Amino acid sequence: MNPARDAVDEANAAIGAAISTQSLPGDLEDLLGDIQQDLLDLADALTTGASPPPPDRLQKVLAGAHTAEPPRGFAVLGGLSPGGGLLKLARTVVRRAAHTAARGPVRDYLDLLADVLLTAAFRAEEHERGQVPLGLCIDVVRPTERSY
């Protein structure tokens, strides 16, 4: 039994669930799909002792992130987006995996991934905030006496 590998598998499942909500921007879904493949490699590395995936993709995502700093408590409080909530859950599980893993490249990868997932959750929330619910026509239709 390998607690770090188990946590990586759990985080991968949470990321898959976030993608399944179909509430994330398309480019974020693509990035998360690539990260899922990396997590399969990372789980294998935790079992066999092989090298973890290179952190280049994660470093590039963090360097290119143009989001504001998430507000205090963002990582654990509820929000607008089911996908964002699942990404917060995945981040928490990745943090657990990092604390369980030995110091070195695996832990470094997991620490970067936790930051990427928090950034992705924040972006998912921002995306959701910009969506207009279907059927919302407040400016077009005014309530009438018969509209109850």
Give a description of the structure.
By secondary structure, this protein is an all-alpha fold. The chain has a single domain (3-129), classed as Cobalamin adenosyltransferase-like (Hypothetical Protein Ta1238, Chain: A), CATH 1.20.1200.10. 64% of the residues lie in helices and 0% in strands. It contains 5 helices and no strands. Helix 4 packs antiparallel against helix 5. The longest helix has 25 residues, at 105-129. It is globular, with a radius of gyration of 18 Å. It starts with a helix and ends in a 19-residue tail after the last helix. The model has no long low-confidence stretch (mean pLDDT 87).
Using brief descriptors, characterize the structure shown.
mainly alpha; globular; Hypothetical Protein Ta1238, Chain: A; ATP-binding; nucleotide-binding; ATP:cob(I)alamin adenosyltransferase; CblAdoTrfase-like_sf; transferase; about 150 residues
- The succession of helices and strands, N to C, reads HHHHH
Number of strand segments: 0
- Computed structural class: mainly alpha
Give the % helix.
Answer: 55-70%
CATH architecture annotation name: Up-down Bundle
Spans of at least 5 consecutive residues whose pLDDT stays below 50 are none
Q: What is the rounded Rg?
A: 18 Å
Tell me the overall shape.
Answer: globular
CATH-level-4 superfamily name: Cobalamin adenosyltransferase-like
- The CATH topology name reads Hypothetical Protein Ta1238, Chain: A
CATH class: Mainly Alpha
Q: In the residues, how many domains can be counted? A: 1
Strand content: under 5%
| Helix count, DSSP H or I runs of 4 or more residues | 5
Give the distance, in angstroms, between the N- and C-terminal Cα atoms.
60 Å
User: Can you summarize the main beta sheet?
Assistant: none
Overall pLDDT metric: 87
